[in-house]
Write a structure and sequence with these properties.
Length: 379
């Protein structure tokens, strides 16, 4: 057993921490207020060759591992969770299904531009009537000669306004339930395809969250991703990896809330002392530090399992569930330590609190994750 980061992982941590503190953190508050999408950050990350980090070099990727991916998401989220989720979805939802299930030709056509940062990655699973019950998909795809005709809609889709193409699920055999769902690659400029970005959200204001509308969208048969009727399983496998990203986001947000609280507690004087001298505050900070450490270890371990080709469904669900609940708890305590100031925007912990809330919902609610874990432990 070795708990040290490798030389390469350490190098990536140093590069991304510098980048995140220098280029991402300064605009985070403003972006939270305006909702402006940080496209320039991703252009710079493309120059640093981070946009394809865990994918093979032959597709323009960095050949890195999943621990490095988690480190990048964590460090971005520590400065700006909107930037963190954009990157996490780009890699783990946008690039991963192409990498896992695409043909060589599909990888050249669709994965390479993602790795170069020419397009952001996205995937479409959730629908108005199919959230936790992802198998309840209504979007349909009907084979017409050598083409597929797709109709339906998707909601809560990250990054689609900045994606040139994305993978989405559609029912190809109504009689077969989850075994009648297939995945397709759909270029976003296809006739009949529209991306709407009208949501007003609690947090993650600078991330791009969209609805997709597909009206008689036609794609050639070679745009089927993987095998027909295996789309549900492919997307479930993709989500296992996505949950590493959400867990890493949670660690980054929690770390930021902890650091701000420690800093504040040392400077804030009440009853003639810095409040960090009071045991009531010390215990809060001690619990925060301990739980963040636990969450980080869980996230890194599941990334380690993934890199070794082991099954990691249960561990991914556990890490995402635990880390997201820790993030909420830590952010709530961070506001408590800041008192009235914590409730105000200036101290930033209220932004972290709002941003963290999504993590208990997106890519599997806490309830769905408990279901997944229960099944995996043989209930
Ligand atoms: N890996 C591989 N195969 C899997 C799998 C996994 N992780 N999970 C399920 N499967 C397989 C099952 O083994 C089963 O196959 P067999 O019958 O051959 O054994 C098949 O898929 C169907 O599985 P279930 O019977 O478990 O299906 P279910 O309908 O009971 O659903 C569920 C299970 C866990 C609740 C699933 O629907 C789920 O994960 N729901 C949550 C979806 C989710 O996280 N959505 C958020 C998406 S994020 C998004 O879309 C927006 C964005 O941009 C962020």
């Amino acid at each position: 057993m070795d708990y040290d980061l490798t030389q390469e992982q350490t190098m990536i941590r140093n590069v991304i921490r510098d980048f995140s503190e220098g280029e991402v953190a300064p605009g985070a508050e403003e972006r939270d207020k305006t909702g402006q999408f940080p496209i320039e950050v991703f252009d710079k990350m493309a120059k640093l060759e981070l946009m394809g980090l865990p994918f093979p070099e032959k597709y323009g990727g960095g050949g890195g591992d999943s621990i490095s991916f988690a480190i990048v998401v964590e460090e971005l989220s520590r400065s700006c969770a909107s930037t963190g989720i954009t990157y996490s979805a780009h890699i783990s939802l946008g690039g991963a299904p192409l990498h896992l299930f695409g043909t060589e030709k599909q990888k050249q056509m669709y994965l390479v531009p993602l790795c170069r940062g020419e397009s952001l990655g996205a995937f479409g699973l959730t629908e108005p009537g199919a959230g936790s019950d992802a198998g309840g998909t209504r979007t349909s795809a009907v084979k017409k000669g050598t083409q597929w005709l797709i109709n339906g809609s998707k909601c809560f889709i990250t990054n689609a306004s900045y994606a040139r193409h994305l993978c989405l699920t559609a029912v190809t055999d109504k009689s077969k339930g989850t075994k009648g769902i297939s995945a397709f690659i759909v270029p976003t400029n296809t006739k009949g395809f529209s991306v709407l970005s009208n949501y007003e959200k609690l947090g993650l204001h600078a991330s791009n969250t969209t609805e997709l509308v597909l009206e008689d969208v036609v794609v050639p048969e070679e745009n089927l991703l993987g095998k027909e009727n295996e789309g549900f399983k492919q997307f479930m496998k993709t989500l296992d990896g996505g949950r590493i990203g959400i867990g890493a986001m949670a660690v980054g947000i929690a770390q930021a809330a902890f650091e701000k609280s420690l800093h504040y507690a040392k400077k804030r004087t009440q009853f003639g002392n810095a409040i960090s001298k009071f045991q009531a505050i010390q215990f809060k900070l001690a619990d925060m530090a301990m739980e963040i450490e636990n969450a980080r270890n869980m996230v890194y371990r599941v990334a380690w399992l993934k890199d070794r080709g082991r099954k990691f469904t249960k561990e991914a669900a556990m890490a995402k569930l635990y880390a997201s609940e820790v993030a909420m708890k830590v952010c709530s305590q961070a506001i408590q330590i800041h008192g009235g100031y914590g409730y105000m925007r200036d101290y930033q912990v209220e932004r972290l609190f709002r941003d963290a809330r999504l993590l208990e919902i997106g890519e599997g609610t806490s309830e769905v994750l408990r279901m997944v874990i229960a099944r995996e432990i043989g209930c």
